[in-house]
Amino acid sequence: MYNTNNSKPIIDWYNSNKRDLPWRNTKDPYKIWLSEIMLQQTQVKTVIPYYNRWIAQYPTLISVANSNIDQLLKSWEGLGYYKRCRNFHKACKIIYKSYNGIVPKDYHSLIKLPGLGDYSSSAIMSIAFNERYPAVDGNLNRVISRVLGIKNLTNHNKKRVKKFAGDIVQCTRPGDVNQALMDIGSLLCTPTKAECTKCPNQKICKASKSNNPLSYPNKIKKKPKPTVFMMAFCLMYNGKFAIQKRNKKNFLGYLWEFPSFESKSLDRLNENIIYSYFGRGVKLQKKIGTVKHTYSHFKTVVDLYLCSVNNKKININKIKWIENKEFSKYAFSKLNHKLLSLIRSKDV
Hints:
Structural class: alpha+beta
Order of helices and strands: HHHHHHHHHHHHEEEEHEEEH
Strand content: 5-15%
Mean pLDDT: 94
Shape: elongated
C-alpha cells in the first residue's frame, strides 16, 4: 500500500496553494455535484460564472427538480454538452421523489443516477461526505502516471493508477487530497509543462527523476474530426422567424434551432430541394452566408438561406414562429447563435 504519510506534503501544498473556487466554500453535496457535472470537459474559468448564476437561480436540488427542462437549458445555454443538464435534471427529480430531496450518502446509489459515473460519484463521496474514494479524472491519470513512471495507459496501468489513488486517499481528508491532485494537474503538472520543483510529489515522482517528465505518459494521437455539411434556413412569415425544437433523444435534444438538414456537400440549393423539405409554400430568396463550428467529435460547415413563406402550415415538425426580440427567451446551441448573428449582421 502507498505510504499515507506522503499525503501530508500534498495536503500541506493544498493548504497554501489551492484555487479559490466557489464550490469549495461549501459541503452541500448538491452544489459539489453541480460543479463536477459542469466541469466535465469544460475549463474552470468558463464554469465559474455559470455555476454562480445557476446557484443564484436554483439554490437547492428541489428547485431544480421542480423546474422544467426548457428553463434549465436556457440557464445552461453556452456551456455546451447539454446532455449533462438533461441528466442532472432527471437525477434531481429521482432524488426528490425517492430520497426526499436529500443526496444519498452512498456511492452505489449515486452511480445509478443519470449522468453519474465512477469519477463523479467518487468526487461527491470524498469532497461532500469525506469518504475515502479516489476521484480519477484526466488530471489525476496524468499526475499519477508520472509519479509511477507509466508510459502507456494500458488497462493494467490504469488499474495501477486507480490503486495508487485509492491508497493515497486513505487519510483524514480524502476530498482535499483529490482536489489537491486536481490542482496539481491543472497548475503544475499539465500536458505541456511540469514544474517539478514546486510539486509536492517531486521526491517520489519517477517521471521527474527521468529529467523528461513531459514524456509521461505517451500522448494519444487524436483522430482528425470529420466535417459535416449542412443547410440551414431562415424562414420568414409576416416578419416572424421559424424555429423548431430538436428531438429530446437526438444530439442537442430539447434545444431550439433554425430548421436545418444535413447535406452531402455545399452544392448550390435549388427550389426542388426546398419543396422536398418544406412543401410549395416556401420560396427561396437568397443565400445569407456560411458559418463554421466545431463540436467535440466533428466539424460542421453550414450554408444559411433566406426563404419567404406564404403559408404558415409548412411541412416541418414542432415549428414555432417568433419575433426578432423573442430569441432571448429560447435556448439555442452556439452554432445557432452564430447563424442568428449572421442574420442580424445582414439586416434580414
